[in-house]
């Protein structure tokens, strides 16, 4: 039986990540990096598409799992009639090679287990050539450029194009399994000591978590979200992927299956605020550095997303041999939306730079202002064009309200940076454009009959992104148009207490199941409540969202309230970023601070 999305836990080494099921099976891993081909792809097919299972052979009477304190070390306990065993899974911070360490420890009695290793490179398609090393201490699996090395004291054998082992562990005993990745043309990576690796990995995460400055009421939730955000960071460049997975469906059984193993500019400012306000200046600086390098070049060529190293061609194709998660097809690799025009990213970029300047701990590159001026010059020419919007609609471009608002944000923040820091800029020109955009949005984006800002000019449909208007400072939270928009969202955009990102009244030609509620949007509504002074409503909505996290504190992109299941790619950076920021907001307002964190510096 295929695992639910929320059945998975996350382990990683800050260059890639794996998903581990409650049953002891690693069903997803792209190696050696987030955007590499998967060698375990069972989550999008079946065991034959690659997995690594370690589990008792007899009936499991009970199981439980948890992370070791504030770490990314996952411990799963299996209870059987014969005894109890613990499976400890982790990936040490990347050294010369990338490793997955699995320690099987006897807790009580004596338990018989089976290990099944099914390596299928190329997203579950390619069966490797398997052989032992000359000294017979390791098992190599080689296919093209890829090689894995399995080391364990347990005797293994081949079975139906897989590697298996049957073994038993008694109380107090530990049996290690270490799988290492290496390029096939290079020497076999050196072995590591599993126990030393466990200790050093625990020390790494404990030390990293010690830098967290957040001490509010939701510390455990915020800490797990920060750890998740760190795990989704590609350490060599500072880029943060939206999720480590591709094609987990937004609509169960549907075709809204996208590759999220890339870095979105959309998340720039919220990411910066989440990291900086939690004490992680180094990570915020690395993210800013990635951002600056990724967008370098002609502003007209700026994309909505980039690869983890700043790659621009994220060509989309379909892995037709994979049946998809619970039959949701197609399975997509790459993301064609990278070529769309989305005007909101210009605002996110300029706002991120402005927020960084306002935070004295973060130093910006000297060339940043020159880049911003070039972006503003381009935006002055294109702000009034239709685009594809924040949700990357794959139909005809429209004049999306949020896109227009974010072009206003770009000019507003550029003006404020120039005024505060004495930068040379055509202020009168920018001020005129800022005022013109504001007037345009208020005249064409607000529908008096609906008493709300709508999705796009001429539409009467709503869109959850307009909940961000008070957060970005477009209008005061107390403005009747903002309060009307919040009320309209409550009336038409909520299902079972969660916020949808698209108006369900919109008529489309889709016959597939309806999309789940968008969790980040639900938290954006909580932020809007905070800004409007409705703290009890904000807290209730925040509590509702975090209550559907899995037992490890992980959240996907969406939630299908009818099925009671998480949907979309998992775990989702934007959801965890929104959780961090909303937690800060709630704590700050209860401390009667000057303003909530999410009210960006304007």
Annotate the secondary structure layout.
Elements: E1 9-12, E2 17-20, E3 25-30, E4 38-40, E5 51-56, E6 62-67, E7 74-80, E8 83-90, E9 98-118, H1 121-124, E10 129-132, E11 139-143, E12 146-151, E13 157-159, E14 162-170, E15 174-183, H2 194-209, H3 219-231, E16 233-234, E17 239-240, E18 263-264, H4 268-276, H5 281-295, E19 305-306, E20 317-318, E21 332-333, H6 344-358, H7 368-382, H8 401-421, H9 427-444, E22 446-447, E23 452-453, H10 480-492, E24 494-495, E25 498-499, E26 517-518, H11 519-532, H12 535-546, E27 558-560, E28 565-567, H13 573-590
Antiparallel strand pairs: 1-2, 2-3, 3-4, 3-5, 5-9, 6-7, 7-8, 8-9, 9-14, 9-15, 10-11, 11-12, 12-15, 13-14, 16-17, 18-19, 20-21, 22-23, 24-25, 26-27, 27-28
Helix pairs in contact: 3-13, 4-5, 4-6, 4-13, 6-8, 7-8, 8-9, 11-12, 11-13, 12-13
Characterize the structure shown.
- The chain is an alpha+beta fold and 602 residues long.
- The chain is built from 13 helices and 28 strands.
- The strands form 7 sheets. The protein has a 15-stranded antiparallel sheet that branches.
- Strand 8 (83-90) and strand 9 (98-118) form a beta hairpin.
- The chain is globular, with a radius of gyration of 25 Å.
């Amino acid at each position: 039986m295929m695992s639910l999305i929320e059945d998975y836990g996350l382990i990683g080494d800050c260059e890639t990540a794996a998903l581990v099921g409650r049953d002891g099976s690693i069903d997803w891993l792209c190696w050696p990096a987030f955007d590499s081909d998967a060698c375990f792809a069972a989550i999008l097919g079946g065991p034959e598409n690659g997995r690594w299972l370690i589990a008792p052979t007899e009936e499991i009477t009970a199981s439980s799992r948890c992370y070791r304190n504030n770490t990314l070390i996952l411990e799963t306990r299996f209870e059987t009639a014969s005894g109890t065993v613990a499976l400890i899974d982790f990936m040490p911070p990347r050294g010369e090679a990338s490793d997955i360490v699995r320690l099987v420890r006897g807790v009580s009695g004596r338990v018989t287990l089976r290990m099944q290793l099914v390596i299928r490179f190329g997203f579950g398609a390619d069966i490797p050539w398997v052989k032992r090393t000359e000294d017979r201490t390791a098992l190599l699996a080689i296919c093209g450029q890829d090689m894995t090395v399995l080391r364990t004291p347990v005797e293994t054998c081949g079975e139906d194009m897989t590697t298996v082992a049957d073994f038993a562990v008694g109380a107090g005993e530990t049996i290690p399994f270490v799988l290492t990745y290496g390029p096939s043309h290079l020497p076999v990576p050196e072995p590591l000591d599993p126990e030393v690796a466990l200790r050093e990995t625990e020390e790494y995460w404990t030390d990293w978590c010690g830098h967290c400055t957040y001490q509010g009421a939701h510390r455990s939730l915020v800490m797990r979200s920060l750890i998740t955000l760190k795990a989704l960071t590609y350490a060599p460049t500072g880029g943060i992927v939206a999720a480590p997975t591709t094609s987990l469906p937004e609509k169960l059984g549907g075709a809204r299956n996208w590759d999220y193993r890339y870095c979105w500019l959309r998340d720039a400012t919220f990411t910066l605020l989440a990291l900086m306000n939690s004490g992680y200046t180094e990570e915020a600086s690395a993210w800013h550095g990635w951002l600056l390098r990724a967008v370098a070049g002609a502003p007209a060529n700026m994309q909505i997303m980039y690869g983890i190293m700043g790659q621009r061609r994220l060509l989309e194709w379909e892995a037709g041999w994979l049946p998809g998660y619970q039959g949701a097809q197609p399975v997509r690799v790459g993301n064609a939306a990278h070529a769309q025009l989305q005007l909101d990213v210009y605002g996110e970029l300029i706002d991120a730079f402005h927020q960084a300047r306002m935070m004295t701990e973060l130093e910006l590159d000297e060339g940043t202002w020159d880049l911003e001026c070039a972006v503003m010059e381009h935006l002055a020419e294109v702000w009034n064009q239709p685009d594809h919007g924040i949700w990357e609609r794959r139909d005809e471009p429209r004049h999306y309200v949020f896109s227009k608002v974010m072009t206003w944000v770009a000019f507003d923040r550029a003006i404020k940076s120039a005024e505060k820091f004495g930068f040379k800029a055509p202020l009168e020109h920018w001020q005129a454009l800022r005022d013109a955009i504001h007037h345009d949005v208020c005249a064409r984006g607000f529908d008096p009959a609906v008493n709300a800002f709508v999705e796009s000019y001429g539409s009467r449909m709503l869109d959850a992104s307009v909940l961000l208007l008070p957060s970005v400072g477009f209008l005061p939270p107390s403005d009747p148009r903002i309060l009307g928009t919040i009320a309209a969202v409550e009336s038409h955009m909520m299902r079972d207490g969660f916020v949808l990102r698209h108006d369900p009244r919109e008529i489309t030609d889709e016959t597939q199941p309806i999309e789940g509620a968008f969790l980040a949007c639900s938290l954006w509504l909580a932020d809007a409540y905070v800004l409007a002074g409705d703290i009890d409503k904000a807290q209730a909505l925040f509590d509702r969202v975090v209550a559907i996290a899995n037992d490890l504190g992980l959240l996907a992109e969406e939630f299908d309230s009818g099925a009671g299941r998480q949907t979309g790619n998992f775990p989702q950076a934007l959801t965890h970023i929104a959780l961090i920021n909303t937690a800060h907001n709630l704590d700050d307002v209860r401390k009667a601070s000057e303003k909530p964190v999410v009210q960006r510096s304007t």
